[in-house]
Design goal:
It comes from Methanolobus tindarius DSM 2278. The protein is α+β, with helices and mostly antiparallel strands and 771 residues long. It is built from 23 helices and 31 strands. The chain has a six-stranded mixed β-sheet with strand order 2-3-4-1-7-8, with helices on both faces. Strands 9-10-13-12-11-14 form a six-stranded antiparallel beta barrel. Strand 30 and strand 31 form a beta hairpin. Helix 7 packs across helix 16 and helix 7 packs across helix 17.
Length: 771
């Protein structure tokens, strides 16, 4: 008989087996699933890693046909839980049949506890066994040994809170998605699915609200009066006390009084010391925000990278609400580990300061400590163990944040002056970093000095220039992923673990996209959110979802049973569904033909443009008889356009037809085609629309050499068709640079082939420089 341990992932299983066995374990397999065997304290131990959830909820089979099942029925239908990963279930059963005890060692959070209970449920089908729980926040040797020496009871309430989330999310997602999709299909030809999700939709709602502010923004004029002063040879800037002046007459009046002034008087000067405190310890939300803001890493990638760092033993568990360390947290051993290597200077600075103190936050999730490093590692160590593109960047951020939290505040010297010019007050501000403190280890928040010359009160300064500048107010900026995470956290949308997936789901649905560090809503997302906001605003707003999250938390805290939370949550969902169904006609009318469904989001190349007849979308349609451009508003709109029978078609999004074609396409590498007009080579405006890529003057006549690209080759030919041609390299990406050859005046060509350095050269074989 053996003690069987189930972890959440195979990597954790192998790490734990290595620690508990002192590295002396055997690898076996059960139902092709890796199992790690060893002896400890005279007993046989077997450890198996799962693959996340091995069971899942779904509705009974008779509810699978969308058209034959009213979506409302799903809200009153209890879903059933089935095994989704049968090899793992079979392996659990085999291991449990020969066990004397089961230990659950999955991640200590809702989903981890629930995954453990799935294994427990399957094991108990074959044997009645005692089941214990090992809780840990890192895969360090000391913590694993401590956890397995102090096994506890599994947390039923925590596991059931995950059940509540799964069931309520399934009911809402399935019923609402089916209703929306079927309603639109009644009005328009579409095979796509219009997806509504309990967290996905309010997440998109935040982006929509910001986009609406931007679209509705009306700029206003304002004037700002600035002075460039000079003292002791140094220039510095002051701003009129009125700041942004919205009345032109007032700005002109002030400027008229002072425009001829040549000197100013320093009326007041103050110098104060300002402190910038270290950041609070990292919880998951703050980690994701900082990864996005400082590293440009998406929340989903950041969380997955942190998960792999945790499984490799480099950092602690990455899903935690907590941003404060316990009183007995062992800082000293962590600092000693970093007292050599690239972080040596900062670790020794903290150690040498004497008593170690951290700047704690106020959140205590009673689950895991803040995210922190477990062991010191080099860049090579991290990248060898964690095969993810930003593994080292994420590890470095976690280490630096940990050290910064233990260091002294940064100290700035802030200088403020009031300078009188013709009786008008100009404010001048300066700042100097006197002591870097925690900023020394945290390059992500560097602040540049704003130096001022040495001036005392009552000194005169020269007025070098006065400006009365007209500007416009600017619209709000688009949300960054960090700001979106802040809004989700504030309104209780999702959890620390699920927030990144809700953002990613919206991207996959084609509802919004990231551009640099900001999020831009796409037409699909805006249309959907605008429709819901006009008809069922409760779906877009976060309040109902926040209430459901509160119910789930009540289950975890033991304040509500699973059954009562499901009953109350279902009533909230029914309330929203009732509003949705009462607006069916309005929703279908607004969305039919204007929303690009999920199929469109993943197949953008087939969408051509806007239908001039009805304003809906035109797309390429392929049938057994050929291909053509049709309208998504069919059958109401029967507008179509022919396409050439052969050749790969690419829509040239940035190209417009001068004669009114609805779009321009490239047909293979041969010619261009204007939809609704025909082939461009028959058009007298072809050269205007597609000017040749001129390389230089023709050596044989007064024409110009230009690039011709065919399916199989490319070469240079003369615009006068004099017969002179020249070859260019057939492979690699070819670019015609703006830079000219100093010998012949041809544009320099640049060719870049894979795994080779780019080559730049003059393509003129008769260039004097080649003689």
């Amino acid at each position: 008989m053996s003690i069987v341990v189930f972890t959440e992932k195979n990597k954790a299983a192998s790490q734990i087996a290595s620690i508990l066995s002192g590295g002396h374990f055997n690898r076996a397999s059960v139902e092709s699933i890796p199992v790690y065997d060893f002896k400890m304290n005279g007993k046989e131990w077997r450890i198996m890693g799962l693959a996340g959830h091995i069971m899942g909820y779904d509705f009974p089979e008779q509810f699978n046909n969308w058209r034959e099942c009213d979506p409302a029925v799903l809200l009153d239908t209890p879903p059933v839980k089935n095994v989704t990963k049968k090899p793992y279930a079979a392996a659990i059963s085999l291991l449990a049949s020969g066990a004397e005890e089961v230990v659950l060692a999955c991640d200590f959070d809702r989903e981890g506890e629930n995954i453990g209970f799935e294994a427990k449920e399957i094991a108990e089908r074959v044997a009645s066994l005692p089941v214990k729980r090992a809780r840990f926040s890192s895969l360090s040797s000391s913590e694993i040994k401590k956890a397995f020496s102090n096994l506890v009871e599994p947390d039923y309430n925590m596991a059931m809170s995950a059940e509540a989330r799964q069931i309520l999310d399934l009911k809402m997602g399935a019923a609402f998605t089916r209703f929306m999709t079927l309603s639109v299909r009644e009005k328009a030809r579409t095979k796509g699915v219009i997806s509504i999700g309990p967290c996905q939709t309010p997440t998109c709602g935040f982006v929509y609200e910001r986009e609406k502010l931007i679209k509705n923004f009306k700029p206003k004029d304002f004037w700002k009066i600035e002075a460039i002063f000079n003292s002791n040879g140094s220039d510095f800037t002051g701003v009129h006390r009125a700041g942004n002046i919205h009345e032109k007459e007032k700005a002109d009046e002030i400027f008229a009084r002072i425009k001829d002034c040549k000197t100013g008087l320093v009326d007041k000067k103050s110098v104060k010391e300002a402190r910038t405190n270290p950041p609070y310890p990292l919880n998951t939300t703050e980690f994701l925000k900082r990864s996005s803001k400082f590293l440009g890493v998406s929340p989903e990638e950041a969380l997955e990278t942190a998960e792999q760092l945790y499984l490799s033993g480099f950092t602690s568990y990455p899903r935690t609400e907590t941003n404060k360390y316990a009183d007995d947290f062992d800082f000293k051993s962590k600092l000693v580990a970093f007292s050599s290597g690239i972080y040596q200077k900062y670790a020794l600075e903290v150690i040498s300061a004497g008593e170690i103190s951290c700047r704690n936050g106020t959140k205590d999730g009673h689950d895991h400590p803040p995210i922190h490093p477990i062991k010191a590692a080099s860049k090579d160590d991290v990248e060898r163990s964690v095969r993810m593109p930003n593994a080292w960047k994420v590890y470095d951020l976690i280490v630096r944040h940990f050290l910064a939290n233990l260091m002294q505040p940064a100290i700035f010297e802030k200088t403020r002056m009031e300078i009188l010019v013709g009786g008008e007050i100009f404010d001048v501000k300066g700042s100097i970093l006197k002591s870097a403190g925690w900023l020394a280890v945290y390059p992500f928040e560097t602040k540049n000095d704003k130096l001022l010359p040495f001036i005392e009160e009552k000194d005169e300064v020269d007025v070098k220039k006065l400006k009365n500048t007209k500007s416009e107010t600017t619209p709000p900026k688009r949300l960054t992923e960090a700001e979106l995470l802040t809004l989700m956290d504030k309104h209780g949308i999702g959890t620390k673990a699920t927030a990144p997936s809700h953002i990613e789901t919206n991207k996959k649905r084609g509802y919004f996209e990231t551009k640099g560090k900001t999020i831009a809503i796409l037409d699909t997302g805006f249309t959907l959110m605008d429709t819901l906001d006009a008809t069922v605003p409760i779906l877009v707003q976060p309040e109902i979802r926040a209430r459901i999250e509160s119910l789930i938390q009540d289950v975890e805290d033991g304040k509500k049973s699973l059954e009562s939370a499901l009953e109350e949550g279902t009533l909230l969902i029914k309330k929203m569904y009732s509003q949705l169904t009462s607006s069916k006609e309005a929703i279908a009318a607004r969305m039919a033909g204007t929303i690009v469904d999920e199929q469109v989001a993943t197949d953008k190349k087939n969408f051509v443009g806007t239908c001039p007849e009805c304003g809906r979308m035109l797309h390429m349609i392929k049938t057994d008889k050929g291909r053509f451009v049709g309208c998504t508003g069919y059958p109401e709109c029967k507008n179509t356009y022919p396409l050439p029978k052969a050749g790969a078609l690419t829509v040239l999004r940035s190209q417009q037809c001068e004669k009114g074609g609805v779009a321009v396409m490239k047909v293979g590498n041969k010619y261009n085609w204007a939809v609704g007009i025909g082939p461009c080579f028959t058009c007298d405006l072809e050269k205007k629309c597609f000017p040749p890529e001129i390389v230089g003057p023709c050596p044989a006549c007064d024409g110009s050499m230009f690039l011709i690209t065919t399916k199989d080759s490319r070469f240079l030919a003369c615009t006068n068709r004099c017969g002179h041609t020249q070859s260019v390299p057939k492979s690699g990406r070819l670019t015609i640079l703006d830079r000219l050859c100093e010998h012949c005046g041809w544009h320099i060509l640049r060719v870049k082939e894979q795994k080779q350095d780019a080559k730049e050269f003059c393509g003129n074989r008769k260039c004097p420089g080649k003689r």
